[in-house]
Design goal:
The complex is a heterodimer of chains A (245) and B (216).
Chain A (H helix, E strand, L loop, with lengths): L1 H4 L5 E5 L4 E4 L1 H7 L14 H9 L2 E8 L5 E11 L2 E8 L2 H40 L5 E2 L4 E10 L1 H17 L4 E12 L1 H16 L3 E5 L6 H4 L8 E3 L12
Parallel strand pairs in A: 7-8, 8-9, 9-10
Antiparallel strand pairs in A: 1-2, 1-5, 3-4, 4-5, 6-7
Chain B lengths: L2 H11 L3 H13 L4 H21 L5 H20 L9 E6 L7 H12 L3 E4 L6 H11 L3 E5 L6 H12 L6 E5 L17 E3 L2 H12 L8
Parallel strand pairs in B: 1-2, 1-3, 3-4, 4-5
Helix pairs in contact in B: 1-2, 1-3, 1-4, 2-4, 3-4, 4-5, 5-8, 6-7
The chains are: A alpha/beta (245), B alpha/beta (216).
Chain lengths: 245, 216
């Protein structure tokens, strides 16, 4: 009796029906005075209790403490005939604290990650808008439109603009189209490939196309094509009456 | 339980955050809705983890790792989803001593996907703190989460006190206990019980179709 009573860990002596025959002072402090072991075992740990009833083993169980809180314990049972000793060891709360800290760090990293991702999306949206505005279609009169192109004539620029420009040209009912290269910097192979497809589309829409503002550096990219009806000049020369027609 | 659910449970038990996230993204690309992903896949996987613990196949530490992985995974998954700004507000909290936040986190994500502003007050929030926070922010909806049977007596005081707030918030209770227990004795006739995410999504859609809050 004395030995069990002074056990530092909560300890019970039980029978096969899980009646509590004796408990330590530490068990009383942690779980209150119990008559049956099952009374402090959470419903979701019953399957493990059945296992402990049949054999000596160590399992983790959720136990109801004297403070009416469910807490995880490592419960060890040692059977000797029809009686067993049960010892309950609280699962180290330090572990939970460490896990919490790791998780908080993980979330801080993730938040930084999520913010970066959002910024990246914003930057991508801004780039798309910038590209869209790098080749606007300006109406000069009811028959004539101008597309001044800005920046690099690349795949991204043509991807973002060519369909919408062709649609605007068609919907506007224009016949003449000036494409101004004055503000074009570099030209890429993929960019010029798409540009040629854009010209193909416009020709099918019966456009009279004039490419103006060509610089020597642009010429090699424009020389291999079969757009016979497209005209080229170094600057825009509109007849004054055409602006008012 | 389908194979994806078991696969996700195993990945979470290994702490494989990236692979778990990829699995959700794959399902999304295959056309799964958020409601089904949260209900059938994520909740299903966490239930499976719980069952493994009940069968003594895994330890508490394994379960904690799976929970942390799951929390991280759903947060990352939700961060990808575009949200529409709205003026409607929903606040989420667990009653005192309640530590399980995953369920209400997924509920808050569904609100956000539908344009609501949300505020997660987290686990184990004492009633007076909840009252002050709600009084200041004035949410249209206050969602309470409780998963442990022993915490039910507390639920009643939360529901009744929060319902007395002058801006008449709609109180919602989400709990896995609803599958087996009648929680109405702990609540009021106005309280809405959410037994699954489809039901929640339907309620949110009802609000955006112009029905008044609290009318359902």
């Amino acid at each position: 009796m004395g030995l069990l009573n002074n056990m530092p860990l909560p300890t019970f002596r039980i029978d096969r029906q899980l009646n509590v025959l004796e408990y330590s002072e530490s068990a009383k402090r942690r779980f209150g005075s119990q008559v049956r072991l099952g009374e402090i075992v959470d419903e979701e740990s019953y399957r493990k209790l059945v296992k402990l009833q049949e054999q000596s083993a160590t399992v983790e169980m959720a136990l109801l403490t004297a403070a009416s809180k469910l807490e995880p314990f490592s419960v060890s049972v040692q059977w000797e005939g029809e009686e067993a000793f049960v010892q309950c060891v609280e699962i180290n709360s330090k572990l939970a604290r460490l896990e919490q800290m790791v998780y908080q760090q993980q979330m801080r990293l993730a938040e930084a990650d999520f913010q970066l991702m959002e910024k990246k999306e914003e930057a991508e949206d801004a780039l798309i808008k910038m590209k869209e505005r790098s080749a606007p279609l300006i109406s000069l009169n009811s028959r004539t439109a101008l597309i001044p192109m800005f920046g690099n004539l690349d795949d991204a620029l043509m991807d973002q603009t060519k369909d919408s420009l062709a649609l605007q040209f068609h919907n506007g009912g224009y016949e003449q189209l000036y494409i101004d290269f004055t503000a074009v910097d570099a030209i890429t192979l993929l960019g010029i490939e798409q540009f040629k497809q854009f010209i193909d589309t416009l020709l099918l829409l019966d456009a009279n196309i004039h490419i103006v503002g060509i610089k020597p550096v642009h010429a090699p990219f424009l020389k291999d094509h079969n757009h016979q009806s497209v005209t080229y000049s170094s600057s825009i020369q509109l007849k004054s009456e055409s602006l008012y027609s | 339980m389908n194979t994806e659910t078991i696969k996700l449970a195993n990945l979470m038990l290994e702490g494989a955050a990236d692979e778990s996230f990829s699995l959700l993204c794959t399902l999304r690309n295959e056309g799964w809705t958020s409601v089904d992903i949260y209900q059938k896949i994520v909740s299903g996987a966490m239930q499976h983890v719980g069952e493994l613990w009940e069968q003594d196949d895994i330890s508490v530490a394994d379960e904690h790792l799976a929970t942390a992985t799951c929390d991280f995974m759903i947060s990352r998954f939700h961060a990808q989803i575009k949200k529409q700004p709205s003026i409607q507000k929903a606040m989420f909290l667990c009653v005192e001593e309640e530590q399980h936040t995953l369920g209400m986190k997924m509920a808050s994500f569904l609100f956000e996907e539908n344009g609501w502003q949300t505020r997660m007050m987290g686990a184990n929030l004492p009633l007076d703190h909840a009252l002050k926070a709600a009084g200041k922010w004035k949410p249209d909806v206050i969602c309470l989460s409780v998963t442990i049977l022993y915490h039910l007596p507390l639920l009643e005081s939360y529901v009744k006190t929060l319902e007395t707030l002058p801006f008449y918030p709609q109180i919602m209770v989400g709990s896995r206990l609803l599958a087996t227990y009648d929680l109405s004795p702990y609540c009021t006739p106005r309280t809405i019980f959410i037994t699954n995410y489809q039901m929640l999504a339907d309620w949110i859609n009802d609000q955006s179709e112009g029905n008044e809050i609290g009318a359902s």
